[in-house]
Amino acid sequence: MTSKKLKILSTICYDGSVLNEKRVFHIADYLKREDLKKFIKELKVLQAKKNVIITLPSENYNKEFFETEFPNKNIVFKYDPGILVGVRIEYNDNVYDFNLKSILEKESSFIRNYYD
Question: In Å, what is the CA distance from 33 to each residue of 11, 41, 47, 111?
Fold first, then answer.
């Protein structure tokens, strides 16, 4: 089966932003092992495009802001007290790290490497 057909099948498995497991299992029953691996890979790529993982230092942040910035996406909020004043956003295989701790660590490593 061609990769184009597998992409179409993987998009059919979604109802909006929710994966329909019954459709996945129904389609998987008819695929060969090699095609099944490609199909699962396409599902994972689509899932990564539909999910946004936002890590915050506490629960006191305005979540509505993120919901308006990422419409029609499944937003997963995680909490990490190790993040100082900022946010970490994982979206489409990209990680955006906007927090004070990571900025200070990058600056200190730069200073250590170039000014010793």
Answer: 19, 13, 21, 52
Res. 33: pLDDT tops 90: yes
The H or E element that residue 41 is part of is helix 33-50
> How far is it, in rounded angstroms, from Cα 116 to Cα 107?
14
Contacts 24+ apart (CB under 8 A), 91-97: 91/52, 91/53, 92/48, 92/49, 93/48
Give me 95's structure tokens.
Answer: 């990680």
Tokens at 111, concatenated = 């200073």
Would you give the DSSP letter of residue 5?
A: H
* Structural domain range at position 41: 3-49
Residue 68 sits in the same domain as residue 91? yes
How far apart CA 92 and CA 110 sit, in angstroms, is 28
Query: 78 with 89, same domain?
Result: yes
Structure tokens at 5: 């057909």
pLDDT over 80 at 17, yes or no: no
Do 78 and 41 have their domain in common? Answer: no
Count of the separate structural domains present in the chain: 2
